[in-house]
Each structure stands twice: as C-alpha cells, then as structure tokens.
Amino acid sequence: MESQTNEKILDVQNVTVSFDGFKALDDLDFSIRKGELRFVIGPNGAGKTTLLDVVTGKTRPASGKILFNGGVDVAHEMEHTLVRKGLGRKFQTPSVFASLSVYENLEAAVGFNDPTLSLLRGLNEEEEALIHDTLVLIGLSERMGVPAGILAHGEKQWLEIGMLLVQKPSLLLLDEPVAGMTRQERNRTGELLQSIAHRCSVVVVEHDMEFVRNFAKTVTVLHLGQLLCEGAVEDVQKDERVVKVYLGRAHA
Ligand SMILES: Nc1ncnc2c1ncn2[C@@H]1O[C@H](COP(=O)(O)OP(=O)(O)OP(=O)(O)O)[C@@H](O)[C@H]1O
Ligand SMILES: [Mg+2]
Question: How far is the CA of 50 from the centre of ligand 1 (A)?
C-alpha cells in the first residue's frame, strides 16, 4: 500500500509522566513512521529514558495516550505482552548469557516469545536461517561458537541487538547503544542501525553528538520533558534553542 510509509508505528499523544509532582514528561507529542530511524537527544534529565519507559509500559503516564502499531493502546498492555506484539527494548548495559555461546544466546532469544519452547523442540529451518542472517548482520558469524562472556564490550552490545532482532520486532528502542564503545565500534554500530532500519523502525537515544551527526537523518530534541525541536540533523544542530541547551549543559 502506498500510504504505508506514512503509517505511524508509534504515536505518543499529550503524554505526561509525573514523579511526586515533578513532570519527567510534560504533555509530550512524539511519533515515528514505519521504517524510520529516529535519534532522540537532549541534556541529562530531559526525559529520554522516561520516554522509552512509558512506551514499553514500564512506567504509566499520568495522562495522555500511547498507540503502538496502529491499534495497540500501551496503557492496557503488560510489558511482556508488548514484547510479544513486536516492541523490542535494549537497556544500556548488555545482558547476555555469559556461559552460553553467541549462537546459543540467539537460539535462546528466538525461544523467548515462543510458548512452545523452541529450545526443547529444536529450531526449525526458518529460525536457523534467521539466526545465521542475524549473525552476519551483527558481524559475529566467526564468533558464533565462543562464550558470550569473552566478547568485547561492543560485540556484546551487538549480540544483544541480535537477540532482539531474532524476535522480529516492529519497533526497536535503544538507550545509548554506543556508550563505552571505541570509535571503530561506534561506526560499526551506526552502520548496523542503518541496516536494521530497513526491516523495522528504530528509536535511538544518544548523547554522543558526533555519532548522531554521522548517522542520524531525523532528530528529536527533548528538554525538560518537552519537545524542544525536531527535524533534519543539519537544521537541529544549528537551532538556537538546541545550542543554548547544550551549551548550558557544558557550563553546568
Ligand atoms: N523513578 C523515578 N522517580 C523519580 N524521578 C525520576 C524517576 N525516573 C526519572 N526521574 C527523573 O525524571 C527526569 C528525567 O529522567 P530521565 O532518566 O528520563 O532523563 P534522561 O533524559 O534519560 O537523562 P540521561 O541523559 O541522564 O540519561 C530526571 O530529572 C530524573 O531524575
Ligand atoms: Mg537516560
């Protein structure tokens, strides 16, 4: 269908999140189209992680509405049901099974959403192919037999992204995926995110402005729980309000 590219995968409408009266998100509107790769930036405490928390059902909004994939009203869903419905989220610290091999980690992840427990029945051909494709995508084919515990920090992050991908999410949310990475690992991650965006929509929260400049097309800037500015990365970084907020942060 022609209209598909304009279809919203995520639609956050007038959402407020309050912690004892403090508004971490303040009447926020934020939406993502299918197949989009969106970067979300903003100073510490702007509400970026809270946005991911409220979208995944971890935190409940005081007011407003969040629609995922057309009809799914996040307020009425449990966190794990949202995962099954195609919402994947990666936290900052990698959480892989250290003693399992890279391959086994992906194998286990395929089973996460499967009530028939794929580990017991073994994988079918399609699932095996998916794991192999994912290994190529995350650049770990040659490392598939090694215990995940011995991987470098960057490799662990890629494995965890792979573990989300084999669950075939329609929207992937990543909180500061390049924190602690070397420059080479950051570039590799940027390329990975761009190729992932061909198969699902991706929201990346990031602090690293160099990374954002290199890999972002559209950027949303949050400040004090509100949308400060949104648009092409070239325009956003020239925006006076954005410069001021980031300078303010540098002075703080
Ligand atoms: N569970 C909570 N209870 C009370 N206050 C909270 C809670 N979670 C977040 N906050 C507050 O809400 C505001 C937004 O926090 P959030 O973690 O969303 O910011 P952020 O943009 O992710 O910042 P950072 O760049 O430092 O990760 C902060 O002032 C924070 O202290
Ligand atoms: Mg955060």
Answer: 6
- Match 């009425």 to its residue by tokens: 76
Determine if ligand 1 sits within 6 Å of the CB of residue 48.
Answer: yes
CB 44 less than 6 A from any atom of ligand 1: yes
Buried-exposed string 144-177: b where 16+ CB fall within 10 A, e elsewhere: beebbeebeebbbbbbbbbbbbbbebbbbbbbbb
Count of CB atoms situated within 10 Å of the CB of 17 = 22
Which ligand 1 atom minimizes the distance to the CA of 225?
A: 14
Check if 47 has its Cβ closer than 6 Å to any atom of ligand 1. yes
Render pLDDT for 185-226 as a digit per residue (tens, 0 to 9). 999 999 999 999 988 999 999 988 889 999 999 999 999 999
Average pLDDT, the chain: 90
Question: Does residue 105 line the site of ligand 1, with CB under 6 A?
Answer: no
Domains located in the chain, CATH noted: 2-251 (3.40.50.300)
Q: Residue 89: CB partners within 8 Å, gap ≥ 6? A: 52, 56, 83, 164, 172, 173, 174, 175
